[in-house]
Amino acid sequence: MSIEKVRHWFAEYGAEDRILEFPASSATVELAAQALNCAPCRIAKTLSFGVHDTPVLVVAAGDARIDNAKFKAQFGVKAKMLSHEDAAEKIGHAVGGVCPFAVNDGVEVYLDVSLKRFDTVFPAAGSSNSAIELTIPELEHFSASLGWVDVCKAWQ
After folding, report:
1. Cβ-contact 61, 89 below 8 angstroms
2. Which of 63, 76, 117, 127 sits 20 to 30 Å CA-CA off 151?
3. Would you state the pLDDT for residue 20?
């Protein structure tokens, strides 16, 4: 189960007890914000793309949307999200629980600058009813991201 992989991932850092599980779904930004009683913009949604045969995750603020021109300038291809089946297979987490932790080998993780305006954010933790509150430096560290990108719009 994907959440167990994430729990094991965070256990290596002594942070597994920080994972929150909810009785209801948190699979969308709106549902996660309701479950956490926070503003939707503080949900760190993880979007999965195929970039030159490489699975790429972009973690962005809940109120941000992918800007196709910025994405193409950054990655050299049009933004094309992975299908539900491809996301589960290539990333290691099903849509609704996709997160930047405990992903399959070869997955590249990037953080969008839309997140930098917050002290803490809430990414999913591998299931459609989980999350973890992280500071931005913790998100950088725990996600093993390859760096910051600016590929979103509509959040400023």
Report:
1. no
2. 127
3. 96
Please, are residues 73 and 109 in contact by the beta-carbon 8 Å criterion? no
pTM (predicted TM-score): 0.96
Q: Residues 4, 64, 152, CA angle at the centre, nearest 5°?
A: 105
Which has the closest alpha carbon to 151: 104, 115, 97, 98?
Answer: 115
What backbone torsions phi and psi does residue 34 show, to the nearest 5 degrees?
-65, -45
Mapped to the 3 state alphabet, what secondary structure does the chain carry? CHHHHHHHHHHCCCCHHHEEECCCCCCCHHHHHHHHCCCHHHEEEEEEEEECCEEEEEEEECCCEECHHHHHHHHCCCCCECCHHHHHHHHCCCCCCCCCCCCCCCCEEEEEHHHCCCCEEEECCCCCCEEECEEHHHHHHHHCCCCEECCEECCC
Give me the mean pLDDT over the 46-71 stretch: 97
Across the chain, mean pLDDT equals 96
Residue 41: CA count within 13 A, CB half-sphere:
14
